[in-house]
Amino acid sequence: MKKGLKMKLIDLKNIDFPTKKDEDFRKIDISKLLENEYNKVKEYKLDFNTIDKSFQTENELVKINKQLESKTYELKIIKSQEEPIVIVHTLKEDNTLYTNDLHITVEKGIEVSIVEFFVSSCKNSFYSINRDFHIKDNGVLNYIKYQDINETNNMICNTIIDLEEEATINSSAFEMGDGINLNIYDTNLDKKGSSLNLYGLVSLKDKANSSTIFNTTHNEQETYSDIKYKHSLRDSSKAVYEAKSKVNEKGIKTKVFQSSDTILLSDEATIFAKPHLEISIDELEASHAATTGSLDKNQLHYLQTRGIPKNEAFEILLKAFENEIFDTITNQKAKELVKDFKRGDYV
Amino acid sequence: MNNEGFEMLNIKDLKVNINDKEILKGIDLDIKAGEVHVIMGQNGSGKSTLVKTISNHYDCEVTNGQMKYKEKDLLELDTSDRANEGIFLSFQNPIEVPGVNNSYFLKTALNEKRKYQKEQELDSMEFLKLTKDELGKFEIDKKLLQRDLNDGFSGGEKKRNELIQLLILKPDLIMLDEIDSGLDIDAIKTVANVINKLLEDKNRSLLMITHYDKLLSLIKADHVHILEDGKIIKSGDYSLAEEINEKGFKNETN
């Protein structure tokens, strides 16, 4: 696309954009994202090397950035380190379609924590990002994504996870923004002992909309996946949790777990939670669950009987619900950074 | 200031519904500062409903009567204001609140009370010192404070945690709803020690529900009331409790 021209995502060629007819998108309407007009396309630059590597996935949305001639950056971790690597993405320009592609490789036996913050101060902009995590034998990636874009901005994040033998990813996602946000995680667990832990807190207000789709396939024995998300939804916000985990014939002795817990804080807030397991073998451990409710009135009353005013008691209980996901961050410095995050500090 | 004899709680013709069913059918009760009142009665007589109503439980709908606490209309105060005015109900089954640290909860509750009473809030160090001093007097283990509020506590630990709250919040009207149920004799002695110590302050009163004579032998009651079918059918001194323990409720109700 030539700079200076108005463009829409839907006009991009050779991308088979998902529609409501697609099973995963029955409850996710991305037409607004596709039809929105932008004045310019801008690659969000990172101070890393670039590589010529494509993203291997059936997710068509990954193609957006390639079509927009976005470069692919590479971050290779060759040494374990306690200090987390922090990347802050700050979108500032109005009516802009930002792109960013990043491959992260964690070498054998290395452990690292990476935190990515996504914030915006602009209007009517869109951020399309692709992430590819390749974690080699016995490597550990603790990845934290904190998204807090403002209400007129939208974001799509496609993540592909490739784990080698005994490799682990602990991903903690915080979807706190006020715009429309779509996340797609694709993982094939092809190597013995690989471990996928995807945790998330989706805390929304006003008309915020956040959807997350997980496609996980266990193709090898003794693989592990745990997809645990919590949602706290106020006003007329809406969240979607669609997790599909498949265990193929080779996936004996795997463990596969999915859970979605939601607190609806208004009559207008909506959750669509669909945990889904497809299992072809007997010898495994599996569970899936989705709960929806409001804050426990007995707990609320108990706190009030000790002198804590209703509003404060409410906030304390909500924090208690949400804290479980903050506690999935094992790196203390990263945890402090995330817990202390304020949008105003970055934009 | 010694307010002994000051009218702490005054209840007149109190009628309360739970789920549209009348449970309390006209209660009159006066508690003066420094007094210990015991409510006895068979299961379902309305004992717990009475103390729950005083602390403003959402289940209890007051349909008639009045409740005055230190000359304030209790019905005009919400739950947290009642607590900050000095009303404390120790629950039969204290609620578990996973994810809320016990120490954080207690410090928040204490500072809310101090704020309400226009006193300066305590910082973490001052709060730690206070808990160490208060709990040390009764050899109550502080470890409970490090855990989440009542989360996974045994029955005894939950009751001990209520005592910790009593010691720190120092309410004026203490209401104990069967705090002795499920406790062994040593734990009951600790409860009695804590309550008796708090009652040394004659500005404080106790309203206690119990079935168990052991606690009654350790905490001296000034007034004993027998509740039946939502009404106080008999009041007396400690000898009434002794009579009930000996003969049961049957003689009172016939």
Outline of the structure:
Chain A is mostly beta strands. Chain A has helices at residues 31-35, 63-67, 297-305, 310-326, 332-339, and strands spanning 40-43, 49-51, 72-77, 85-91, 96-106, 111-120, 126-135, 140-148, 154-163, 168-175, 180-189, 195-204, 209-218, 224-233, 238-247, 254-264, 270-279, 284-293. In chain A, helix 3 crosses helix 4 (310-326).
Count, helices of chain A: 5
Largest interface: A-B, 23 and 29 residues
User: Main β-sheet of chain A, in a few words?
Assistant: 10 strands, mixed
The count of β-strands of chain B is: 10
Order of helices and strands of chain B: EEEHEEHEHHHHEHEHEEHH
Share of helix of chain A, binned = 10-25%
Mean pLDDT of chain B: 93
Q: How widely separated are the two ends of chain B? A: 45 Å
Report the helical percentage of chain B.
Answer: 25-40%
Count of DSSP strands of chain A: 18
Question: What is the chain-wise order of helices and strands of chain A?
Answer: HEEHEEEEEEEEEEEEEEEEHHH
Instruction: Give me the secondary-structure category of chain B.
Output: alpha/beta
Give the radius of gyration of chain B.
18 Å
Tally the structural domains of chain A. 1
Spans of chain B of at least 5 consecutive residues whose pLDDT stays below 50 are none
Main sheet overview of chain B: 6 strands, mixed
The multimeric state of the shown protein is: heterodimer
Strand order across the largest sheet of chain B:
6-7-8-3-9-10
CA-to-CA gap between the ends of chain A?
Answer: 29 Å
Would you kindly provide a written description of the structure presented here, covering whatever features stand out?
The complex is a heterodimer of chains A (347) and B (254). Chain A has 347 residues and is mainly β. Chain A has one domain (7-294). Chain A contains five helices and 18 strands. In chain A, strands 1, 2, 3, 5, 7, 9, 11, 13, 15 and 17 form a ten-stranded mixed sheet that branches. In chain A, strands 4-6-8-10-12-14-16-18 form an eight-stranded parallel sheet, with helices on one face. The longest helix of chain A is centred in the last third of the chain and has 17 residues, at 310-326. Chain A is globular, with a radius of gyration of 20 Å. The mean pLDDT of chain A is 94. With 254 residues, chain B is of the alpha/beta class. In chain B, 37% of the residues lie in helices and 27% in strands. Chain B is built from ten helices and ten strands. Chain B has helices at 47-54, 79-84, 102-116, 124-136, 143-146, 155-169, 185-198, 213-218, 238-247, 250-253, and strands at residues 7-18, 21-32, 36-41, 60-69, 72-73, 87-90, 173-177, 205-209, 223-228, 231-236. In chain B, the strands form two sheets. Chain B has a six-stranded mixed sheet with strand order 6-7-8-3-9-10, sandwiched between helices. In chain B, α6 (155-169) packs parallel to α7 (185-198). The radius of gyration of chain B is 18 Å and the shape is globular.
